[in-house]
Specification:
globular, binds pyridoxal-5'-phosphate, about 400 residues, 7-stranded mixed beta sheet, alpha/beta
Length: about 400
């Protein structure tokens, strides 16, 4: 992109960031470079690429783009969100302690609770990260990392990134934020003082439910370099085809997020007034407990919402059976609307007791609101909620 005096807006940078025009041919979309090795002109000299696990031009293009959108110095693309998570944990020495939300993504909860304590000697405190006091009380001398994920899944609770990052920094603790639900269009944690952003690009960044990928974005060059070395060693890189699909997805990210937010807000308002709905969890509703914080911290409230239906598990099942536009499926963030039942789907790995205390009951339904015409989505909910 030509240099201008003014930094372009996010919607423009989604399309142009990373200077992805191929200098050799002028192709406006970068070629998919499949080669894993690169000819060296002479011994001891290379042209910037040596071996595909370390770097690949197609992967570099999407990494430059996401680093720009998140305001980071460097982004690294991974084969999945979990590969990114597994690699960022490699920053920690054995015996380190970390703090994570009790209501985080199920896969994150699993690697932190079942795998790394055994394989790497990590100790983990799961706390309510919406409560700064709870984070502070959990900090010990061995604490090295604070994991945040906001909005949370499935209740869309909001953690205060600026305050939590400042608290962590005072204790020499680095802050990592899973920014999957918000995307850089709605929330940029590095600007709030956090150190590293993690993404499951499988969701909104890809946006079409057809590619699995993940990212880490580092605020400083030093962290970026450490993460790059760790990724090269652990090897969980995104392949060139997947990198291309994520780059392609990001081109429309700003436009898609605008529609996801508008549709979700409309559905949340509708559900909040429906007699068969007990409670709606959406940060864009004025009565959401963290609405003010969300308004301050985010540039939109996102495309995810959850609600409690009158009549418990039976009513939830009947609702899901009657949906026609929404598809019953795991995952989120694609152009199509999806409905899920956290108790047996996304949050089935969570012990039942903990699930209940986290507020994930048998009457809770989760919607990933897509970008279809809002009237069709409203009609689908109305039909599925109508008395049998
Ligand atoms: C899906 C998801 C992940 C895991 O990402 P994968 O790409 O499935 O490995 C992590 N965090 C959140 C919030 C997610 O939704």
């Amino acid at each position: 992109m030509a240099k201008t005096s003014r930094k372009p807006a996010l919607a423009t940078r989604c399309i142009h960031a990373g200077d992805t025009v191929d200098p050799a041919t002028g192709a406006v979309m970068p070629p998919i470079h499949t080669s894993v090795t690169y000819a060296q002109p002479e011994l001891g000299r290379d042209l910037g690429y040596v071996y595909g696990r370390a770097s690949n031009p197609t992967r570099d293009a999407v990494e430059r783009c996401l680093a720009d959108l998140e305001g980071g110095t460097r982004a690294l693309a991974f084969a999945s969100g979990m590969a990114a998570t597994a690699t960022v944990l490699e920053l920690l020495d054995a015996g380190s302690h970390l703090i994570a939300p009790f209501d985080g993504y199920g896969g994150t909860y699993r690697i932190l609770s079942e795998v790394r304590p055994r394989s790497a000697g990590l100790a983990v405190s799961f706390v309510d990260c919406c409560d700064l006091g709870a984070i502070e009380r959990a900090i010990r001398p061995a604490t090295k990392l604070l994991w945040l994920e906001t909005p949370t899944n499935p209740l869309l609770r909001i953690q205060d990134l600026r305050a939590a990052a400042a608290l962590a920094r005072r204790h020499g603790v680095i802050t990592v934020v899973d920014n999957t639900f918000a995307t850089p269009i709605l929330q940029r944690p590095l600007e709030q003082g956090c150190d590293i952003v993690m993404h499951s690009a499988t969701k909104y960044l890809g946006g079409h439910s057809d590619v699995l990928a993940g990212f880490l974005v580092a605020g400083t060059a030093e962290l970026g370099e450490r993460l790059h070395l760790l990724r090269s060693m652990a090897g969980g890189v995104a392949g060139p085809f997947d990198s291309y699909l994520i780059l392609r997805g990001i081109k429309t990210l700003a436009l898609r997020m605008e529609r996801h937010c508008a549709n979700a807000q409309a559905l949340a308002g509708y559900l909040a007034g429906h007699p068969r709905v007990r409670r709606v969890h959406y940060p864009g509703l004025a009565d959401h407990p963290h609405h003010a914080l969300a308004s301050r911290q985010m540039d939109g409230y996102g495309g995810m919402l959850a609600f409690e239906i009158e009549g418990g598990a039976g009513a939830a099942r009947a609702f899901l059976d009657r949906l026609e536009v929404f598809t019953l499926a795991e995952s989120l963030g694609g152009v199509e609307s999806l409905a899920g039942y956290p108790a047996t789907m996304s949050h089935s790995a969570m012990p039942a007791e903990q699930r209940r205390s986290a507020g994930i009951g048998d009457d809770l339904l989760r919607l990933s609101v897509g970008i279809e015409d809002p009237d069709d989505l409203l009609a689908d909910l109305a039909r599925a909620l109508a008395p049998a």
